[in-house]
UniProtKB/TrEMBL annotation:
Source organism of the structure: Candidatus Uhrbacteria bacterium RIFOXYB2_FULL_57_15
Protein name per the record: Uncharacterized protein
UniProt xrefs under Pfam families: Cas_Cas4, RNase_H_2
Domain YprB ribonuclease H-like, chain residue ranges per copy: 296-466
Domain DUF83: 121-213
InterPro entries recorded: Dna2/Cas4_DUF83 (IPR022765), PDDEXK-like_dom_sf (IPR011604), RecB_nuclease_TM0106_put (IPR019993), RNaseH-like_sf (IPR012337), YprB_RNase_H-like_dom (IPR038720)
C-alpha cells in the first residue's frame, strides 16, 4: 500500500471542510462540483504578487513539473549552496506519511547543518497583510520537512506580504504540535475515517458542498439545523437526537447538559427543527424595527486577503426617488480617501434617519476604520443609527433554511428576491476585486458595483417584508 502524501493545500481543504479531502479520495467524481473561483485563488494565494516580488532577484528556479524531478533538482541546489531557491520541492517521510511542499523561496542562512556551514529556511509570498493561521501551519510544516532534509529545523521563517514587507514567524513547540495534530486529522480522513457531518457557511467554498448537503438531507441529520454549534452534536446524538424530527420532538427540560448549547439555544434549535420539518415559518415575536423617515440601507464589500474595505454602498429611500449611492476604493491604497468621502457625505444627511444593515460587518468595520483614519461627530451620529436586521430576524422569526445569509433569506420562497448576476456572493465579489486589480478590467469593477446595489436593495426588500408581517 502506497504511503499518503500530505501537502499544504490539505490544510486549506481541511479547514474549509474536512469532507473535501474525504470525498476527493472516496467520493464519486461525477458528483464533484467546480472549485469556487475564490477558493481556487486561496489555494493559489499570492501568485501575482509572487511574480512581481521575485522580479530582479538573483535566484535559482526549479521549473520541473514532476515532483520527483523537482525534488532531485532542489536537493542538488541545496548541496551546491545557492543563495536563493525559487519554487523548490522538499519532502520527507514523517510518521509513516510523505510530507511534501513547495515553498516559494528557500533562503540560505548561516549555521551548521548536514549540508555544511549553512542551512535553508522557507519564505512564502502571500497576497495578505498578515500571517493567517493556515499560513502558520504551512510554514511550520516546511520547517519540519527541512529538519529531516538538512538535519536542522529553521527557527525563523517568514512571509512576504502584499506590500512586499517581510513578516517573521518563529514556529514554536505549540505551532509544531498543532501542525502534527492537523496532519494526523488529515491522514485519518485519508485512511477512511469519515468526518462527522457538519454544515457551515465556509463549506460553500468546497466543490463537494452540494454532496455534503445531499448526504445530510438523506439522513435528515441535525447538521442541517442553523446556528447549532457542531461541537454540541456528539452530546445530542448520545441523547438520542440524531435527526431534524428528533430535534423537533425533543423535550429540552429532559435533556442532559449539552456542551456549547444552552437550554435557551436548544429551544431555538427545536423551533428551527419544527420549521425545517414543515417547511414553514415559525414566528416568535412581532418585529420591533426603529422607524425613520429617511431609510438608508448599507452594505460593505471587503477583501480579507488584502485587509481592505473597497466599496461602501447605500440604497436610500424616503426623500424622493429611491437611489443608490456608493464610495469606491479602486485600489487598496485608496481606502483612506474612500473613508474621507464617506465622512463628508454623512455630514450632508438630515437629522432623522436610520441605517439598516444585515449582520455586524458594517458596524464593526466602520468603527475600526474610524479608529484608523479618524472620526467626526457626524460619523458618531451615523453609527448611533445602525439597525441590524439579522438580529431582528433572529429575535422574531425562524426560517426553514440551513443558512441565514441575506442571500439565503432574500432568495427564499418567502421573499423571492433575485440578484442580477448568477454568481453573486460576497466571496465572488472578493474574487472580482482581485481580478480587477490584476487585469484592470472595468467590467469586473462594474460587476462588484451591481452586486453591491442588489445587496442593499435586498436589505430594503427584507425590511419591507418584516414591516408587512409586523402589521399582520
Amino acid at each position: 500500500m502506497s504511503r499518503h502524501i500530505v501537502t499544504p493545500s490539505h490544510f486549506y481543504q481541511h479547514a474549509t471542510c474536512p469532507h473535501w479531502i474525504w470525498y476527493d479520495r472516496f467520493g464519486d467524481p461525477a458528483r464533484k462540483g467546480e472549485v469556487p473561483e475564490l477558493a481556487q485563488k486561496l489555494l493559489d494565494q499570492g501568485v501575482v504578487h509572487e511574480v512581481e516580488y521575485v522580479k530582479g532577484l538573483a535566484l535559482s528556479p526549479v521549473t520541473a513539473a514532476d515532483p520527483a524531478d523537482a525534488l532531485a533538482l532542489t536537493l542538488k541546489l541545496m548541496r551546491q549552496g545557492v543563495d536563493l531557491i525559487y519554487q523548490g520541492t522538499i519532502e520527507a517521510e514523517i510518521d509513516g506519511a510523505i510530507w511534501r511542499g513547495r515553498p516559494d523561496l528557500l533562503e540560505k542562512r548561516k549555521g551548521k547543518s548536514s549540508l555544511g556551514g549553512y542551512y535553508y529556511a522557507p519564505v512564502d509570498i502571500k497576497s495578505s497583510h498578515s500571517i493567517h493561521r493556515e499560513q502558520q501551519l504551512q510554514l511550520a510544516f516546511y520547517a519540519m520537512v527541512l529538519e529531516r532534509v538538512q538535519g536542522v529545523r529553521p527557527k525563523e521563517t517568514a512571509i512576504i506580504n502584499v506590500d512586499h514587507e517581510r513578516i517573521t514567524f518563529r514556529p514554536s513547540a505549540v505551532h509544531i504540535g498543532k501542525t502534527r495534530a492537523a496532519v494526523k486529522e488529515i491522514l485519518d480522513v485519508m485512511d477512511g475515517k469519515r468526518p462527522p457531518l457538519r454544515l457551515a457557511s465556509k463549506c460553500k467554498r468546497s466543490p463537494w458542498f452540494r454532496e455534503c448537503v445531499r448526504e445530510a438531507e438523506e439522513g435528515n441529520d441535525i447538521a442541517l439545523l442553523y446556528d447549532l454549534d457542531s461541537r454540541a452534536h456528539p452530546a445530542l446524538r448520545a441523547a438520542g437526537i440524531h435527526t431534524v424530527q428528533d430535534a423537533a420532538r425533543m423535550d429540552v427540560s429532559m435533556l442532559p447538559k449539552i456542551p456549547f448549547c444552552s437550554a435557551q439555544k436548544l429551544e431555538r434549535v427545536k423551533l428551527q427543527a419544527e420549521s425545517l420539518a414543515t417547511g414553514e415559518l415559525r414566528w416568535m415575536a412581532r418585529p420591533k424595527i426603529p422607524y425613520a423617515p429617511l431609510r438608508i440601507y448599507f452594505d460593505i464589500e471587503g477583501d480579507p486577503l488584502l485587509d481592505v474595505q473597497y466599496l461602501f454602498g447605500f440604497w436610500i429611500e424616503g426623500d424622493g426617488e429611491p437611489r443608490y449611492v456608493r464610495f469606491l476604493a479602486e485600489r487598496p491604497e485608496d481606502e483612506r480617501a474612500m473613508w474621507n468621502e464617506f465622512l463628508a457625505w454623512t455630514a450632508t444627511l438630515p437629522d432623522d434617519f436610520a441605517v439598516y444593515h444585515y449582520a455586524d460587518y458594517e458596524r464593526a468595520h466602520t468603527l475600526r476604520m474610524a479608529e484608523e483614519y479618524g472620526t467626526s461627530p457626524v460619523f458618531a451620529r451615523f453609527a448611533s443609527r445602525y439597525v441590524d436586521l439579522l438580529k431582528i430576524v433572529k429575535d422574531c422569526v425562524v426560517f426553514p433554511l440551513y443558512f441565514y445569509s441575506i442571500k439565503d433569506i432574500a432568495k427564499s420562497k418567502f421573499l423571492n428576491y433575485h440578484w442580477r448576476h448568477k454568481k453573486a456572493g460576497g466571496a465572488q465579489s472578493i474574487f472580482w476585486y482581485e481580478q480587477w486589480l490584476e487585469t484592470g478590467d472595468r467590467n469586473m469593477l462594474q460587476d462588484i458595483i451591481d452586486y453591491n446595489e442588489d445587496d442593499v436593495v435586498a436589505t430594503a426588500h427584507l425590511h419591507r417584508w418584516l414591516l408587512e408581517h409586523r402589521e399582520n
